[in-house]
Design brief:
By secondary structure, the protein is an all-alpha fold. Helix content is about 80%, strand content about 0%.
């Protein structure tokens, strides 16, 4: 691996940094977009069941908010009732929509950076290719470079390796990054839709708790 990096020249280091950043983003999103951290399947039913007799105390609401992103959205509705037991339906919806926008921002976090990695990696690979081509032409520009057998064979070989290795590394990084970006974006959209449906059902439950 070290010999490949040496053969690819200095442009490969920008791609290595890009690959490390991309891998870190992929792992972070894999952890953060788990259903248990975003919208546990039974959380809505548990929140409704726990509030059948009335709005839960603040300590329970805070525990719900720390459970997951969906829990934070549901807890915002309880907080609205704590602040104003006679809150209107419009005010309740506005409170949950505001919490939902914050949750959506957290779902989309770092996806833009992952898309940037997917876009930048081929360009960095192309930069390495251009630098390799410059070395190739430079190897033929010396004394006897335009004559049969002239030029610097070692510099020619190095220029070719720089061009090819950087092109390959750029594509190797960009393709998985693009795949994971599309997958995580679709997953974030699906989770957000699930939270919207749960919030709509929860609003109807909260309306029954008003005084």
């Amino acid at each position: 691996m070290l010999s490949i990096i040496q053969a690819a020249g200095w442009p490969i280091w920008t791609l290595i940094v890009c690959s490390v950043v991309g891998l870190a983003l992929i792992i972070e999103r894999a952890v953060s977009l788990r259903a248990t951290k975003v919208a546990p399947p039974t959380l809505l039913d548990e929140a409704i069941q726990a509030s059948r007799a009335g709005v839960p105390p603040p300590a329970v609401v805070e525990q719900l908010a720390e459970n997951s992103l969906l829990g934070a959205v549901l807890a915002s509705g309880f907080r609205a009732l704590h602040a104003n037991p006679g809150v209107t339906e419009a005010e309740l919806r506005a409170q949950l929509e505001s919490a939902g926008r914050l949750a959506a921002a957290r779902l989309q976090r770092y996806l833009g950076a992952l898309a940037t990695v997917a876009s930048a990696a081929p360009l960095l690979g192309l930069l390495g290719t251009v630098i390799g081509m410059i070395e190739i032409f430079g190897s033929q520009a010396g004394p006897g470079g335009l004559l049969p057998g002239g030029g610097n064979p070692a510099q020619l070989a190095h220029g070719i390796s720089v061009a090819l290795y950087n092109t390959a590394f750029g594509l190797i990084i960009a393709i998985p990054a693009l795949i994971f970006w599309r997958y995580y974006r679709a997953r974030a959209d699906a989770l957000l839709l699930q939270m919207e449906v749960a919030a709509e059902r929860f609003v109807h439950h909260l309306l029954t708790l008003r005084r």
